TrEMBL record:
InterPro entries reported in the protein's UniProt record: Ester_Hydrolysis_Enzymes (IPR051532), SGNH_hydro (IPR013830), SGNH_hydro_sf (IPR036514)
UniProt-recorded name of the protein: Lysophospholipase L1-like esterase
Pfam families: Lipase_GDSL_2
GO molecular function, one term: phosphatidylcholine lysophospholipase activity
Family matches, as Gene3D superfamilies: SGNH hydrolase
Domain named SGNH hydrolase-type esterase: residues: 57-219
Length: 230
């Protein structure tokens, strides 16, 4: 009986010793992890200095509904548009929307939904500036190209357009132009190419006063293609 008890005690001690050794090993890694993590961070920073040859289109439904692969078959394009998105949505998920693609160029094309939701043009511009700044921080070698908001046509469908007006859109576009000038970024003016004589989105270019028709996208792709990175 005593012998069995001694065997159990020895077995318990052996298990405790193994556990202690394992714990020391784990703690050792934990204590040394600062340098290890730092090195990994440095390595990761070096890795992301190598950009991939792709063009990421960051936007809302106008981007989401744009068949980029069909429009630009000779280029590497990533459609990072999500219908209904505002600048706040993008800011909350910029890593998955832009950073992970390690892009050579990012086309920023959004802001209309902010105006529809009641944001002021100035608030929208500030949010767009924040997006641009974050992209520049996370992917410093990526070229950023700003795309203007397009006009709306409330006569086609007032409910779809909502609070968004062409006056507000033009204020945002003016802000984008100023950012582009200050930071030496390309700015693509779609507004001027898609408007009618009254400054509204041409009826043949839209399906509901807000979104583009095939004819509208045909115009857009012709304007954007010269800016794409091969």
């Amino acid at each position: 009986m005593k012998r069995k008890r001694m065997v159990k005690i020895r077995l318990s001690l052996a298990l405790l010793l193994c556990a202690g050794t394992f714990l020391s090993f784990v703690l050792g890694i934990g204590l040394a992890s600062g340098a290890f993590v730092k090195e990994r961070v440095v390595t990761k920073t070096k890795e992301i200095k190598q950009i991939d040859a792709n063009n990421v289109f960051l936007g809302d439904s106008l981007t989401d509904y744009f068949d980029l692969d069909a429009a630009f078959p000779d280029y590497s394009v990533v459609n990072s548009g999500v219908a209904g998105n505002t600048t706040d949505n993008v800011l909350a998920d910029l890593n998955n929307r832009v950073t992970i693609y390690n892009p050579s160029q990012v086309f920023v094309w959004l802001g209309t939904n902010d105006l529809i939701d009641g944001k002021t043009p100035q608030q929208t511009i500030e949010s767009l500036q924040e997006i641009i700044g974050q992209i520049q921080t996370e992917r410093s070698l990526a070229k950023i190209t700003l795309i203007s908001l397009i006009p709306v046509n409330a006569q086609v469908n007032p409910a779809t357009v909502g609070l968004c007006s062409n006056d507000h859109i033009q204020e945002v576009n003016q802000g984008l132009q100023e950012i582009a000038k200050e930071q030496e970024l390309d700015y693509i003016d779609l507004f001027s190419e898609l408007k009618d004589e009254q400054g509204n989105l041409k009826s043949e270019y839209t399906v509901d006063g807000l979104h583009l028709s095939d004819a509208g996208y045909q115009v857009v792709l012709g304007i954007i293609e010269p800016y794409l990175d091969a």
